[in-house]
Amino acid sequence: MKKYLPWIFTGIFALEAFMALLPRHEKTFQTREFAVLPTLLNGRIQPLGSVARNTLLQIRSAQSVPLEGNGGSEWGTWEQLRKDNRLPLTERHWWQFAKHPKRLKATDWLMEAMMRPDLADDRYIFLVHLPELLNELKLEGKGIENEGLRYFSFNELRPALDVVDTQVQRVLKSEAENRSTVEQRTVYQKQLFKLANALRLYSGVRFSLRPERSDDFAQEIDQFLKSAPAGVTAVKRQQAGQEFNQQDLDRIIENVGQYDRMATAALLPLVPPARPEESRDNWTNIGNELKESVHTGEVPPAVKYYAAMVTAYRHDKPDDFNRAVADYRQWLGGKFAPELSKGVRESFFNNFQPFYRAMLIYLFAFLLGCGFWFNWSEPLRRSAFCLIVLAGLIHTFGLVFRMVLEGRPPVTNLYSSAIFIGWGAVILGLVLESIYKDGIGVVTAAAIGFVTQIIAHNLALGGDTMEMLQAVLDTNFWLATHVVAVTTGYASTFVAGFLGLLYILRGVFTRSLSDSTSKALARMMYGIVCFATLFSFVGTVLGGIWADQSWGRFWGWDPKENGALIIVLWNATILHARWGGMIRERGLACMAVFGNIVTSYSWFGVNMLGIGLHSYGFMDQAFKWLIAFVISQVVLIAIGLLPPRYWLSFRDSLAARASAPPAPEPPGKARPASAGA
């Protein structure tokens, strides 16, 4: 049975991944079909599913919304739901939600926020946990608690909107007067601006598809187009001082006022350019198109299709909704086939979630690798190796798919750098395991692969991870050479540091670090440091050439440039110390662990300074985690510097050496007369 264990574990995870690739049939509203519809946001074409996911991540730091009532209670009976009007469903749809009753997925939330804001306004999506801000907004006693955090609905925050806006304007005025920066804001001010941004995003979603006071949007548009000429005539006659129909004037003023608010507040430009002379990037929002229809007497087809979706969704007619989505997709398949195709591909990528799946497999493989060290069961090691191969394939698939979607090399921002560093570490770990077959490679690959996916997930909370590049970065050749090379150097240095970490932990706290294992780990660290030095140096030189072409100077002592140089110098220092005999296995491990600190500073730390030409990736919320990581590495180095008598793996050998009889004298050598004294 044990010999089949690797195939069983790998087969289970492979089957789960395969099942995720299969299309799913939705019996009610086809949200997956709606999710592929394209829009132009953040300078790129993306599907509504990506918009939903990124927006909800920014607002709630999650990809779904809990559907519990106040206090986290269960949904309750069907009669209670219908009485409270909490779901736009009929009884024939109840079975679907009874099966998964606790969460609303991102696309479902987006549809609800755009088409049924009366329901979405009661969802607990806004995070406010700072006591000072809670008191300022008078939120005590409201909201629900989930995993130790306090969430509030839009309706609960509605009375405090003016207070939030007033406080934001006050902070901005103070910053302008004192010439202070965003990085100097207090914790209260940072929480305030985060809440204000979440409210802005939510308001933009609410006004993207329909006016605030609208029920049958499709019929209202038809009536507006019919009444618009009379309204225009009434406006002109009023301006000319002639008699006019007051009812026609009031009607057009009311409608145009609603559409003007849509045009101003809408987040999403959902209407593609319908006229042949327009640029393909000239997408507009529905409010602008409805205002323009006062003069043209017609609206683009996209507006009519979306209006039909809104009406069908609000009146609980899934067949009509699905028909409108299908008709709109068919219309897009003409002139806008590339945009629709990109939406389909990106939605598939979002639904499959390759990096999330790889992260879970890495975690399981790490546990198997640690289990192998406890009982040296070869099937566990081979199972871990096979699982990492599977996770690496899924990881590679996700990496390549992102490259195809973006039309870019693999590293374009901090998020993609985390993905790539994890991928590079996994490849190196698999190579080490293929050579040494002692579990060290699989544990290294699994641990770094898992941690980098966690880092990437938290970086994704900032919004769209495929947004347009800074102009200074928008060069595919240098992205494919400098950035990839230097990021490979990061990954290699981290692998060497993790090997040093394993050396210290196994040596101090276990008896498993034998002499052969110690020398094998030292060879691994040495080889990886050589690899890291090469790629870090080449990447740094290529970065200088890029800087010379982009900014007119090869080197400017920018913090990011200094960080890259420090990595090269530190790796070179390790190699020289090893070559010169100044360090042996234990010293090599401690210096490799310090390389983790150097690399983390170059990768993240310099971005937190907020200065220099490379400050585009600022992530102040990661500062505390960076400090915690640095402290942990310093502690590990201190443990590694303990004398060998405190290392469990060395204690027995030292004791045996101390109790061993002295070696016999060489033959023929005279013994001193005083030796027996």
Task: Give an account of the 3D structure.
This protein has 677 residues and is mainly α. The chain folds into three domains: 28-351, no CATH class; 353-468; 502-656, no CATH class. Helices cover 67% and strands 3% of the residues. It has 27 helices and seven strands. It has helices at 5-21, 31-35, 48-60, 78-84, 94-99, 106-115, 117-120, 131-136, 154-157, 161-178, 187-206, 217-239, 246-265, 286-296, 301-314, 318-335, 337-352, 354-375, 378-406, 414-436, 440-459, 476-509, 515-551, 559-579, 585-608, 623-640, 648-659, and strands spanning 38-41, 44-47, 64-66, 103-105, 126-127, 144-146, 149-152. Strands 5-7-6 form a three-stranded antiparallel β-sheet. β6 and β7 form a beta hairpin. The N and C termini lie far apart (67 Å). The relative contact order is 0.07. Residues 69-101 and 671-677 have low confidence and may be disordered.
Key descriptive features of the protein:
about 675 residues; mainly alpha; 3 domains; three-stranded antiparallel β-sheet; two-stranded antiparallel sheet; 7 strands; disordered C terminus
Average pLDDT score: 85
Strand order of the largest sheet: 5-7-6
Structural class by sheet pairing and helices: mainly alpha
Please give the largest β-sheet: 3 strands, antiparallel
